[in-house]
Amino acid sequence: MNKPQTLGELKKANYRSLSVKDEMRSNLLPKLASGEPLFPGIIGYDDTVVPQIANAILSRHNFILLGLRGQAKSRILRALTILLDAEIPFLAGCEINDDPLKPICRACHDRLRELADQTPIDYLPRELRYVEKLATPDVTIADIIGDLDPIKAARGGHALSSELTIHYGLLPRANRGIFAINELPDLAGKIQVGLFNIMQEGDVQIKGYPVRLPLDVALAFTANPEDYTARGKIITPLKDRIGSEIRTHYPATLEHAIAITAQEAWTDRDGSGLAIPRFVRELIESAAFEARHEKRVDKRSGVSQRLPITCLENVVSNAEQRALRNREDKAVPRPSDLYSAIPSLTGKFELEYEGELKGAENVARDIIRQATAKIFRKYFDNVPLHSIVQWFEMGGSLKYSPNAPTQELYAQFKKIQGLLEKTQALGIKAKDDPALLVAGGEFILEGLYALRRISRSEELGYHAEPTRAGRAEPSSEEPSPTSSRRRGLN
C-alpha cells in the first residue's frame, strides 16, 4: 500500500496524530501485556528501574535518571526510541517536523495557506526522532532554543521579530520526538530556566521577542546525585517540573554483573582460540564489587561498570599475547593476568586521602587480593587443601615467568601434591585442556596466598607462610610492577 504523499491524501487515509507521550504510552501498553522485555540489553533493572520508567511513561511524565557513572543511564535514554512508531508523517521541508494536521511554525502555516491539500508530506523514522545533548557549561540558549538569524531576515526581507528569521535550536528540532540531556546539573542556570519555561508554558523569548512554541516533546534527563556533584545543581523550579525522579544502581548480584560484562566486553578475538574460565569472570566482577566497598575508594564518585569490562578485555589480551608468544592454539586467562590488567582499573575509581597516600596501583592490588579471597572461599570453603599447604611447608617453592607456556606450568603444578586434582571444585576435569588445569591450579595458589596460608615473594615465588616462631613476617608492601612482571606472579 502506497503511503500518502500530500496533506489531502493523508486526510483521506483517516490519519490521526498523537502527542509523543501518548504515542509512547500506547506502544508501551501492549509490551507490558505481552511480557516482552521493554529494554533489551539492559540487565539487572527488571525489578527496580524499568518498572519506574514504565510508570513515568504511562503517566506521561518527563523524567530524570539519577545515578553514579557507568549505570547505563544514557543507554536507557537511547533505548526509549523503541516506544516510538516506526515512522510518522510531517510537512516536507519543515525544520521542526511539524504535524501536518497541527502545524506550529509560521513557515508551515504560510505553505498550507498557499498549497492547502496539495502540501507535500514526508516521513520521519523513529531513529531521527531522538535528540541528545551533553550538558556543558558553555551551552547557550541559542544552542537549545534558537536564535534570530540576521542573514535569514535580510534575504527574506523579514523583520527581526518575525518567526521566519529564527534559527531553531536542538529542542525545537526535537519536536514530536524525545529530547534528552545528559548531566543536567552542568547546564547553566539560565539555560535550565529556558527549559522549564518551554516544558510548562510552551513559550520562550528569543532576543527579547516573545515567540510561542507549543512543542510536542518528551523530555528525559540524566544526572549524578546532587549530594556529591560540585559542578552545578538542578534549579528548584526545573526539578519541580520533572514528573519522575528515578534512581539507577550498580548490578546487585554477581550473575547480573557477569552478564553485563559478557555483553559489553570485546572478547571475540581473531587468531588464537579463547576460553575464559568461569572463575576468572567471577574474579573480575568481584574486584568491582570490592572496589565499591573499599574504604580507600571515594564512594561518592562510584566505581563504573566499565571497570570489569575493560579489565576483562585486558585480561583476555594478556592471555592472547602469551598464547601467541608460545605458539599455543588456545588462549586461557589465568588469575595472575588480573595484575597485568591493573592499568584498566586505576583510572576507574577516585581515591580518598588514605588511598592517595598508598597509591592507586597498590590499592588495585589489594582489591584484587580481596576479590580472590572471596571467590576462593566460594569454591573451596569445604575443600581440604592441607596437602598443598604441606608441600610448601616441607620446603617446596614455585617460581615461573609471566609468559610461561602451558606445558611448562602443567609439569611444575603436577609436582605439587593434590594441586591439579583440587581443580575439580572449579568444574575442571582431569582430562580437560592442560591450559584450563593450569589456570585452575594458579587460582588455588592465588587463593591460598590471598588467605595468607602460603606466601609469595620476588625471590622465592610461592612458598610457605613464615611462622612467628621462625622467620620474620613478610613485608606487606607489594613489589614494583617491573619486578612483578619479571617474576610472573603479580
β-strand percent reads 5-15%
Q: Measured on Cα atoms, how large is the radius of gyration?
A: 30 Å
Biggest sheet strand order reads 4-7-10-1-11
Counting structural domains, the number is 2
Number of strands: 15
**Could you say which overall geometry the principal axes of the C-alpha atoms support?**
elongated
Q: How would you explain this protein's 3D organization?
A:
The protein is an alpha/beta fold and 490 residues long. The protein folds into two domains: 7-247, P-loop containing nucleotide triphosphate hydrolases (Rossmann fold); 254-487, no CATH class. Helices cover 41% and strands 13% of the residues. The chain contains 20 helices and 15 strands. Strands 4-7-10-1-11 form a five-stranded parallel beta sheet. A hairpin with a 2-residue loop joins strand 8 and strand 9. The chain is elongated and about 95 Å long. It starts with 6 loop residues before the first helix and ends with a helix.
In short:
By secondary structure, the chain is of the alpha/beta class. 41% of the residues lie in helices and 13% in strands.
Topology:
Elements (H helix, E strand, L loop, with lengths): L6 H6 L7 H15 L14 H10 L4 E4 L6 H7 L7 E5 L14 H10 L5 E5 L4 E5 L6 H4 L1 E3 L1 H7 L9 E3 L1 H4 L3 E6 L6 H12 L2 E4 L2 E4 L4 E7 L12 H6 L2 E4 L6 H11 L8 E2 L3 H16 L12 H20 L4 E2 L5 H4 L12 H6 L1 H21 L5 H8 L12 H9 L19 H17 L3 E4 L3 E4 L16 H7 L3
Parallel strand pairs: 1-10, 1-11, 4-7, 7-10, 12-13
Antiparallel strand pairs: 2-3, 5-6, 8-9, 14-15
List keywords for this structure.
490 residues; alpha/beta; Rossmann fold; 5-stranded parallel beta sheet
